[in-house]
Amino acid sequence: xxxxxxxxxxxxxxxxxxxxxxxxxxxxxxxxxxxxxxxxxxxxxxxxxxxxxxxxxxxxxxxxxxxxxxxxxxxxxxxxxxxxxxxxxxxxxxxxxxxxxxxxxxxxxxxxxxxxxxxxxxxxxxxxxxxxxxxxxxxxxxxxxxxxxxxxxxxxxxxxxxxxxxxxxxxxxxxxxxxxxxxxxxxxxxxxxxxxxxxxxxxxxxxxxxxxxxxxxxx
Length: 219
Ligand code: SF4
Fold this sequence. Notes:
Layout: H1 12-16, E1 23-33, E2 43-49, E3 72-74, H2 75-85, E4 89-93, H3 103-111, E5 115-120, E6 132-135, H4 145-150, E7 153-158, H5 163-171, E8 179-184, H6 189-202, E9 206-208, H7 212-215
Parallel strand pairs: 2-4, 4-5, 5-6, 6-7, 7-8, 8-9
Antiparallel strand pairs: 1-2, 1-3
Helix pairs in contact: 2-3
The structure holds iron/sulfur cluster.
């Protein structure tokens, strides 16, 4: 498996790491409550794939960046684990899941009767069949243009005041039915929540998203 440094523009990474559509680097998988965005509060099985080249400075899962550190696990096994948890909803996240061709994974999950959600920075075109696409763009690597049209939800992480203008730039590119969320970056929460509240009151097409799983002390 070939990996490039996080933050590089090496688009060959997507191809190189896809050893097989049937095997994907899995950092962790667990059954919990979706803490953010449109599906906040729903029970969900998370599949966190290893590998990310976006390089966000405030990333809270930096251990996900190097895909080679994570075992290759078969799609069948991931599906079986998710199904046996009792969940109805699977959230595939990372890392950056669009590094991989996820067509076989979504087919397998859907054949098991599971709803498929993806959370992505949109760094690469989306593959697979998804019930819900959450696009959370990052300043460190712009989303691929094709991802805006696919997004059902736009979730902007607000780190400072200038991020409101940046959020509107992305909102102008998504479809009209896309749900819009502003979420404070966790370490800046106390500072940014009052500003987000004021912004949403003035711009009510946006909603507030908080990471409630962190308040509940669950993964
Ligand atoms: S895209 Fe996600 S996993 Fe990758 S560096 Fe940014 S926050 Fe971390």
